[in-house]
Structure formats: C-alpha cells, structure tokens
Amino acid sequence: MVKLKIDNYDVEVTAGTSILEAARSVHIEIPTLCKHPDVDATAGCGICIVKVNGRIMRSCCTPVAEGMEVITSDAELVDVRRTVLKLILSNHPNACLTCIRSGHCELQDLANTFGIKDAPLPNLTKRWPIDDSTKALVLDSSKCILCGRCVEVCQNQQNVWALGYQNRGLATRISPANGINLADSPCIKCGQCSAHCPTGAIVEYDETQKVWDMLNDKDTYTVVQIAPAVRVAIGEEFGFDFGENLTGKTYAALRRMGFNRIFDTNFGADLTIIEEATEFVRRFTQEPETLPMFTSCCPAWVDMLEKYHHDMISHFSTCKSPQSMVGAMAKTYYADKMGLDAAKIKVVSVMPCTAKKWEIVRSEDMSSSGFQDVDVSITTRELARMIKQAGIDFRTLPEEEADNPLGEYSGAGTIFGATGGVMTAALRTAYYYITGQELGELNFSEIEGLEGVKEATVDIAGKKIKIAVAHGTGNIEKVLNTIRQAKENGEELPYHFVEVMACRGGCIAGGGQPRVMLPGQPKPRGITDDIRRKRAQGLFDEDLHAKNRLSHHNKSIQTLYEEYIGKPNGEKAHHLLHTHYTARERYKK
Amino acid sequence: MGDTSVATQVATKWRKKRGSLIMALHEIQDVKGYVPWEDALEVAKTMNIPLARIYEVLTFYNFFKLEAPGRAVISVCTGTACYLKGNDKVLEEFKKELGINEGESTSDHSFHLQCVRCVGCCGLAPVCVVNGKTYGRVTISDVHNIIDEWRRKIEEEDKELAHG
Ligand code: SF4
Ligand code: SF4
Ligand code: SF4
Ligand code: FES
Ligand code: FES
C-alpha cells in the first residue's frame, strides 16, 4: 500500500494505482479525454494534469508514490485545462447543433464545464471525407480529437486492427490502412470504437427515417422486434438507472409509434436454442470431428471468423441469429397464419448492435423467406431518438405486452444478451435433450461475469462436456489456438462447446447501446465494467423470476414446430433457420 | 496486380527478426522507388503484421513513398500568401491540364501534382516549384508553358536514355 495526500486528504491505495484512480477513491473527479478505463492511457490529451509536489504531471499515467502531495485543481491548473480545451476546439468543427452525439459528448461536456464561451479563432479543422461505407457506422474524422481510444480498442481489445493512425503531426488521422474505407478493411462492425469514442467522430449509421417511412406507409404491415439487451439499456436515455428492465414500456412506445405487431427477439433466442442445442447434441453424439462447436449469433464474430479464422468454419454452428430467425418466421409462418402478403410485411429490429445492420444483408441466406427477412436494423440509440421525436413520454408510459405468437419467451431467451447467457440457455435445453430430464441448478456461475475467457465442465448423463465462453474478440485467439494445437497433436479436445460474443460483456455493451451521461452519473464517462455488470444483472434477474426459464418449454415455440417447421434441424429448419459461411479476404482488392 | 515477388523475398528474409519491419519496407522502396499497396499486403501476410500497423509506419515517415512518383513533381504552394494571390486557381488549371487531382500522378508517371505549405518565397507569390525550380508570380496562362517545358525535358531525357 502507498500513502499519499491528494488535495490534503490522506489516501491509501495499492502500488501501481494511477493518481487519477486514487483521486476517485476520495471523491475527486479529474477531467479526462484520452483515458478510458477499458484501455491504456495514450496520454495524448493533457487535460488530466495535476500538480505533484508542485510539478505539473498527467494523472492518468502517473502512478502514486509514497508521500506524494497532489493538488488536483487550482487557478493555474484550471487555466491550463482551458487552454488544452481551446486548442482542441480550434481543431474541431462547430457542429454541435447537428451532431448526433450532442448532449452526450465528452468534449462538449468539458467545454461547458470549463466555461469555454467562444470558439477560438482561427478554426483549423481539417475536413475529411465522411466514411459511411459500412452502412453500420459513420466515421467523421473531422470530429476526431485523436484521443486514440478507438485505435486501442480496435487493435487490442478487439484484435481486429481495422483502425490505425495515419500520417503524423497535424495531418494525423484515424482510419484504416492507407486511408481506405472501413468497408474495404477488416472491420467487423462491432462498433466498439463508437462505444468508446468521446465525441461524435464514430457513430451509428442512422436509419430512423427509413423506419418512419415504413410506418407512414399505409400499405405496409410493420413488425418490430427488440433484442434482449435493449430492454436493460434504453431507460438510460430517459433518466432511468443502468440495468433497469423496461420491456413493457418499450413495447408500449413501439405500439404508439405505429407498429402493427410488436414481437420480441427473445422468442428468436428460444428458437435459436432449440436449433442450436439439437445441432450440438448431434455433433456431440454423431460427429465428434466437428467439435468444438462455436455459437454463431454474434454477426461481428461471424465476420471475424470468415476473415480471420476460416479454418474453423466447419466448427461454426449453422444457426442463424435470433433477429434473423424472427425475420424469417414473420415473413413465412406468421404471414401464412394470418393470411398476410409477405411482400407487404416490413420487419424492423431494434438491436444493441451496429454489426446487426450488416448481418441482415450478409448473404442470400438472409432472404430465406423470398424477401429480405429483416428490412431495417436500428440500434437502441436510434430507437430512443425515435421515441423522443414521436413525443412519447417514456418515463410515465404504462407497461404493455408483446403480441403473439412471436412475442412469447423464456428466461433463457432473455439472458442471450449477456456473456455466458447463450451457453447457459443452450445447456439447459441440451441437458433435457440428452437425459430427458431438467437440470436442477439452471445457472452456471463459472461462466457468468467479466473474465475474458471462462471455462467449466458440465456433467450430462455421465459425459463431461467442456465449455468455454469468450467475449471481446481479442480474447478469442487464445481459445482458438489451444483448439488448433490439440487437433494438430491429436490430443483430447480442450472444449466441446464455445460461446463467443464480440463485445466485452456481450450485447449488453454492444456498439449501439446508449452512451449517455446521467445526471450525477459516477464518472468515468462511457461504457464501464460497472455498467456492464448492472445491465447483465438486469437480464439475469428477469430470468431468475421468469415463470418459464427453458426455451423448450416456450409454448409458442412448441406450436411453431407442430404447425410449421416440423423437426428441429429438419429440412424446413435448414432452409429458414440455418446459414452458410465463406472464407473472405481481410482487405477488398 | 503488380508483381510482389520482391516483397515476398524481402519479408521472408526479415520475418524472424523483431522490429525489422522498417528494414523490409526500406528494401522494397530501394528496389521499386515506392511501396505499392500489394507489396504492403504481402509483407503483412508474410511477416504476420497487421496492415494497419504497416501503414502507421509507412505514413509516419516522410521517407516512404506510397505511389510511383512522377518524374516532374509539381508543387503548388497553398500557403496563406500564395492562396490569397490566387494559387487555388493555378492549382485548378494544373489539374485540368494534367487530368489528375492533387496527390496523384499522370498514368505515364511523367507528372506528379501536389500541394505544399509556404515554400518561403512569399514575396514571389503565387509560387510553384517543379523539381526544385521555383516559378514566381504564376498566372493561369503560365501553367501550360510550365508543363510544356518539363514535357520537353522528359522527352529529351528519354531520347538520351534510348541512345545511351
Ligand atoms: S467497428 Fe469494431 S472492428 Fe470496426 S473499426 Fe470499430 S472497433 Fe474496429
Ligand atoms: S475517432 Fe473518437 S475515439 Fe477515435 S481517436 Fe478520434 S475522438 Fe478518439
Ligand atoms: S456481442 Fe452482441 S452487440 Fe456485440 S457485436 Fe456481437 S451481437 Fe453485436
Ligand atoms: S492525458 Fe490523461 S486523460 Fe488524456
Ligand atoms: S505562402 Fe507561398 S511561398 Fe509563402
């Protein structure tokens, strides 16, 4: 332990703690821009300066030392911080009025906090072409303050290396190699760059108008579905606490916006589990050479597999994701049942995820109904924007129910949104398929939580099933390499079943989730592990109290198989609920 | 796609040595005069280094050239003085005459057009520099003559080479 004084308060923290974190422990907030708790400090911005024994230093990257005396704020420090801000602003467009990030922008917040009244002149902002080539994310480099968070995240946390620094000095810019477009780069559209960007430089590709146009078209029958992770995050946009489950209010808001039918992606999650558990049991008992099996519900992970790890394609579950399954069912089963013309149905999905925008056009398998199965995918942030535009008072809105039959779901479907959830849900059903009995304990505590790779062994009818759960694509390579090595040496497989989600914490911390600053929100700003835990808790709590916690007990799913699909993994299922993968180059051209 | 065998060779040679990326890129430029995209991709594969990292290096050092350089490099000054004296119009004229944008080379690699910041002779503004030769008080009508002058030089060079 190290003892020091910060603003005359005695502080005792473990060695190696930064001054910034030490100050937080005594309720002192030092402003930051480049430092984010998920990434190493690039120490580029200089806003976090403090005085250490009289000398000005950067608190985010200076570790505490015994006997240090730190001043975090005085007239001179405030003055330097203002200068830093003015320098940044002289290189930043005056675009707050039309910026999607306005109100939740860390730079705007600091400019206000430090009372920067007029923008310094001359404004030297470099205009770069706006890159919306992915149709999932929009990179506007002129709003970039070069904090480096996205680069750290994309290179290290995600291990994708789509983004890097180009040029140097004043001409520096964040972009893929040689300034090419993101769509031609290895980018997997996970949106983690956007989740960590302090400004409006990387944001979701906004498609709210497309949705309004569908809603305003009287000839269109509009169907909407919301992903598991949306319900525990959307409230943040309306002043609710992190992780509060607002499923009923979200349904109500969607109904008021004018959707004809409100469905739930959780139904699709239950359906995915039926198909995936069946697939796993088949591989486990009859095709051991195709083990381990990887989950496939995360499109960013699919994208990564196709570009980086195509040697593993045969190990990938062929199941489509829940959003795709709901889309396919809405335009076939539901259309048939209700006597609707599938050509007139438009399916909108609300997702925590930017990669889901790409998934809906990934391959022709995504048009299995004869039409594009999901027509538009918007993020949680976009839905919140639409609710505000519609003048719906979300806070006081009474709760409503989803419509049937694609609205019923089990607790197992809900937990799909958090790391460990898909595996847990699948094991519950796989256990039943193998043993004919239900599991006693429905949770597997070893695979919950934020450890990057989690492992467990589950005993099913005397067979030991080895599982792994990885999240944050940077954690996957280790897992893959252990598998590759074991296969090469003809050794026993380290795992039979592996769950992967591209985002740290799972979809609850997806690239399309709210990035708000709640009044009184404990800093640091942006997505943190604390917020991840609260959102995940929101999902696991719903599961814990759900009347039905097993996908195979979902009555609407049972009816769906009886009336329409027939057997899990059967012919119809293969056509509508499964997909194929192809190896692709990381760089186009 | 260009021939990347040089890149393959060079990258294979340097693969095992840590921190040797710069050396490999250096050698490619020595042979080719610049580092083409395909060669950079090849280095990425062979040395197992992300391409984004390679371009971080390539664009950090002014030394590295990413395009086949033109033989006459036309630098149009866009410093404040030159800009105020209308060098933007001169630049437009160059673009029109050569059929290329700034930062590009003509397809025969004879000309490369680029913008530069103040070249330190504001008194002569607007200023253009071609391969070190400075032209002052440039007007739109000069553009054609400057290009002509250099085209003749290049042709003469070629002739000499041919008779060489
Ligand atoms: S979306 Fe993901 S992969 Fe693409 S640039 Fe952002 S962090 Fe990198
Ligand atoms: S794009 Fe955003 S996160 Fe990336 S360097 Fe710029 S400001 Fe930082
Ligand atoms: S983990 Fe979830 S939010 Fe993140 S990319 Fe995958 S599907 Fe999208
Ligand atoms: S230098 Fe510390 S937050 Fe940027
Ligand atoms: S501005 Fe052109 S030479 Fe100074």
Structure description:
The complex is a heterodimer of chains A (589) and B (164). Chain A is an alpha/beta fold and 589 residues long. Helix content of chain A is 33%, strand content 13%. In chain A, strands 2-1-5-3-4 form a five-stranded mixed β-sheet. Chain A has a four-stranded parallel β-sheet with strand order 11-10-13-14, with helices on both faces. A four-stranded mixed β-sheet of chain A has the order 12-17-16-15, with helices on one face. In chain A, strand 1 (2-6) and strand 2 (9-13) form a beta hairpin. The longest helix of chain A is centred in the middle third of the chain and has 22 residues, at 265-286. Chain B has 164 residues and is an alpha+beta fold. Chain B has helices at residues 5-14, 21-32, 37-47, 51-60, 80-84, 87-98, 140-163, and strands at 72-77, 111-116, 128-130, 133-135. In chain B, strand 3 (128-130) and strand 4 (133-135) form a beta hairpin. The longest helix of chain B has 24 residues, at 140-163. Chain B is elongated, with a radius of gyration of 19 Å. The model of chain B has no long low-confidence stretch (mean pLDDT 87). The A-B interface holds A 155, 161-168, 176-178, 185, 586-587, 589 and B 37, 40-41, 50-56, 58-60, 66. Bound molecules: iron/sulfur cluster (3 copies) and FE2/S2 (inorganic) cluster (FES) (2 copies). The site of one iron/sulfur cluster has 14 residues of chain A, from helix 4. One iron/sulfur cluster is lined by residues 190, 298-301, 352-353, 355, 501-503, 506-507, 510 of chain A.
Can you give me a brief rundown of this structure?
Chain A is α/β, with parallel strands linked by helices and 589 residues long. Chain A has helices at 19-24, 75-89, 106-113, 149-157, 192-196, 208-216, 247-257, 265-286, 299-308, 322-338, 355-359, 380-389, 411-414, 421-435, 476-488, 529-544, 555-565, 571-577; strands spanning 2-6, 9-13, 49-52, 55-58, 69-71, 137-139, 164-166, 173-175, 202-204, 221-226, 261-264, 293-294, 345-351, 376-379, 453-460, 463-471, 497-501. Chain B has 164 residues and is of the alpha+beta class.
